């Protein structure tokens, strides 16, 4: 009798925990749409998962891969350069990597500029690595080197802090394509990490994150923002620029699952987020399926404000929002387009 009581208690506890997680992921909650006044779709770039802005150059680097057909040994990804002042320029649809490396599945991006040095760091899922490119004046990319290490099992996003220095997220230690990765996500297991790379030296800078995803640096370089996707939160770390050491200083609840992060010229933080993340896996199998999208802005008050929310009909499963002056570029994991939107004066 005691055995059955224990088993019943376990089952009830598991059911209650599962119900709580479904509520945390807004699975049954209605979503109130929030629209931007004017958004134009820019078509022809598959899977624009991350967008990184070079505001001085009025351009944006876009990570691209058709993830429905791009198996590990299949279709190669690309990096595109979108000219904000000339949106119809044909050069925006050309891959800038020169075909290097051959196996290339890009995720997160980070643009670095210091003096005459212009570089782009790109997470390459195909090699569990970070690729480093030199950026030419016209936006073409010259491959310089590949950073890889045995602890980098599931790289997701990167943020540069020097010409060969960067932070990179390991979203879940077993690897996001491992069967157990879904369990880590659903059960809120903190196996995510942030690794710091100082040239040839690697070390763990932060751990215990619940699916470590997007990264961004504050304008003064003293704070690092990290998206905790399974935790519906943005982590803020104090950063020692001399050593790269991180110390957790705050957490901002978002009410949605954050993906990539960008900091604009005024220091505001832009987050591409998934209000209902459990709807996303279906997109990989069904090109007609949609998943809701959200964009949040975190300003000087430190609170997250929704500037865009959609049921997925306009842009499904948004993963990134990047501001360039009075424009906002909104990308997504499985779409074949990104949105080019006009920002109202209230959020510029």
From TrEMBL:
Gene3D superfamilies, A to Z: TolB, C-terminal domain
Instruction: Please name the InterPro entries in this protein's record.
Output: 6-blade_b-propeller_TolB-like (IPR011042), Arylesterase (IPR002640), Serum_paraoxonase/arylesterase (IPR051288)
Pfam families the UniProt entry points to: Arylesterase
Highest taxon, organism lineage: Bacteria
- Alphabetically ordered keywords of this record: Disulfide bond, Glycoprotein, Hydrolase
Q: Which family does it belong to?
A: Belongs to the paraoxonase family.
Q: Indicate what this protein is called per its UniProt record.
A: SMP-30/gluconolactonase/LRE family protein
In its UniProt entry, the species of origin is given as: Hyphococcus aureus
The beginning of the lineage is: Bacteria, Pseudomonadati, Pseudomonadota, Alphaproteobacteria, Parvularculales
